[in-house]
Amino acid sequence: VTDEPQLIMLPGPTNVPPRVMRAMSKPIINHRGPEFREMFRRVTGNLQYVFETKNDVITLTSSGTGGVECAISNILTKGEKIIIPVNGVFSGRVRDTINVYDGTPIEIPVEWGDAVTPEKIEEALKREKDVRAVTIVYNETATGVTTRCLKEVGEICEKYNALFIVDAISILGGDKLPVDEWKIDMCITGAQKSLMTPPGLAFVSVSPKAWSIIQKSKRRFYFDLPACRKFLADDETPYTPALPLIYALDEALQMIKEEGLEPRYRRHKVCADALYAGLEAMKLNLYAKKKVRSNVVIAVNNPSGITDKDIHKRMLEKYRISIAGGMGKLKNTMFRFGVMGMVNPANIVQTLNALECTLSDLGYKMDLGSGVSAARDVFTREKML
Amino acid sequence: VTDEPQLIMLPGPTNVPPRVMRAMSKPIINHRGPEFREMFRRVTGNLQYVFETKNDVITLTSSGTGGVECAISNILTKGEKIIIPVNGVFSGRVRDTINVYDGTPIEIPVEWGDAVTPEKIEEALKREKDVRAVTIVYNETATGVTTRCLKEVGEICEKYNALFIVDAISILGGDKLPVDEWKIDMCITGAQKSLMTPPGLAFVSVSPKAWSIIQKSKRRFYFDLPACRKFLADDETPYTPALPLIYALDEALQMIKEEGLEPRYRRHKVCADALYAGLEAMKLNLYAKKKVRSNVVIAVNNPSGITDKDIHKRMLEKYRISIAGGMGKLKNTMFRFGVMGMVNPANIVQTLNALECTLSDLGYKMDLGSGVSAARDVFTREKML
């Protein structure tokens, strides 16, 4: 691995600010000592700030998938029903996790590229009765779709006395997500997406209502939430945490507080808007339906006759920009961008320019400069250039 | 957390060499890209070198406890018997993990401070019949005891057709452990102990015999070994790995190869011998029986009238040296040292000197200098000073 940095436009991991990178080189300390506890108390408090919650926020050393498994496995008792709308690979993974833990997933099939409606959720709750939880993947990373009705679903869950679980892995920190206001009982995210921290940490917020269910369910080991809660009371973790990543997270959360949540969400939105405008000006075909398009992950169908493999190989080798391909049934059909964390207008312009040159080299017909120009118009209008 | 480094004499995490710390600041890259794959292939190969195995070695983003849960949960089918000698907190944790996954732990109680014998293992295998596996905690971190009969137990397991699982979390990389020669089917370790990498990674080696059992058992998600194996074939991990820690590990493993396993084990042994000699010269009482004393973790009973809390507070505040206390039923009865990773004679002398001053300040009667002097004699005899 060379020291020449890339521009990471992946849907995670994402670019990490130099301040955050430098924080990882702080000396090793005892994770059962006073210095750790002081830092971990601040980290947990700042996570609550970003989650907009008074609930406990648990830090796990694992990928985001581990965080989802933690949430599901801690509330499930054999046979219990959990509603899960599936509109992509990651919501499919939540369904599979429910199965693995002997739950009964009530799948609401949703067209990929679209999002579930509150009506469909209520319909399922009414029909199924005794549903333990409703789980929604807020941002389906595989398709670039954000499910925008969480507030409504939270109300519905309360009405039917179901827990509301939100997988917010690729989005938390990049788009609005007030956990308490939206009545979310468990909210899961990962470090390496919109929180601009290197990968290796996951987080789960747990409401009092969720704790009361968790107490009754079967405990496992590494993802045992009651054990996490017990140690959290002393600002510790039950098992040795990934210390350098906690240092990094501490710094990233302080940067997020300095920026403020609203300006941060606006920056993500304007960057995404500009990238969408650029892609459309280049006559590229976006995968997600317009009304559910994500501000943090953008999926583009391959232009006819050009493979995403060729596109991302050239983007990486010639321009040092990392982008992703499709997942699951969308493999070999699309390429995807992350618009996350420290993303700024210069990154978007740089990406669009490289994409224009790349596609043009690969024989795609378009007006060179049209993408960059459309993006610049958005930034100018929004006074961000 | 200040930038002033401590001398970490904990039984993990341990001191991390500056080369390894610096490696963490390499730029973020795509964990599905060519640069990652090239590095991860080298890392896996070097792990096989340290494990002395041709078996697959799986890298997990988790603490060591996650690694143990991974191994146990992947081989267990409900009700199956696993033999586990329990001589401390960590072997107790293995027994609990077997219970959590609906296995039947066949516990062999062993006096804390001592180790199981091969005869006891064979007796249990003969009595119980149909035992799925024998699990041994090679180095019981809570008591400073190393179980030295793994080679014999490996032979016995083969004879009775039981899998042989070794929890080597605090020891692998610091003491002899030829996985293939000792017929170990699954060997688990963590990054933050004798491998001198920051915490956050665990490793599990898996033999062909273990794979054949794993195929038949119930799969979970985050710790799903068949998924890990599938991705390992492409030098990847199923979920986003803790990239900076993989960078660090890559560097640490290269340092281990440069030193060589035999010189490395000898360095650990001589440092431990010197520390033992110093502690005995100070008339302190060691917890572990002499014949099973560990070269990587050393447990000392509190001198009468002095608490370990006072000792480690003073060691940390006055000398910037981190040491640990007791665990489980040994809490408030002892203090423990790690002799791990990059440990060298200067660390041992510095630690003994600080301990002499600390104990003397706390009213313990001894000849000041006796500990350091005894340690120096060991290093001189071994030509390491």
Provide the helix percentage of chain A.
40-55%
Helix and strand composition category of chain A = alpha/beta
Q: C-alpha Rg of chain A, in Å? A: 21 Å
General form of chain A: globular
Which percent range describes the beta-strand content of chain A?
15-25%
Molecular structure report:
2 copies of one chain form a homodimer. Chain A has 385 residues and is α/β, with parallel strands linked by helices. Helices cover 42% and strands 16% of the residues of chain A. Chain A contains 13 helices and 14 strands. The first copy, chain A, has helices at residues 18-23, 34-51, 64-75, 89-100, 118-128, 150-159, 208-214, 225-232, 243-259, 261-281, 308-319, 345-361, 370-381; strands spanning 7-8, 56-61, 81-86, 104-109, 131-137, 139-140, 145-146, 163-167, 186-190, 201-206, 297-301, 321-322, 324-325, 334-338. In chain A, strands 2-10-9-8-5-3-4 form a 7-stranded mixed beta sheet, sandwiched between helices. In chain A, a hairpin with an 8-residue loop joins strand 13 (324-325) and strand 14. Chain A starts with 6 loop residues before the first strand and ends with a helix. The mean pLDDT of chain A is 97. Chains A and B meet through helix 2, helix 3, helix 4 and helix 9 of A and helix 2, helix 3, helix 4 and helix 9 of B.
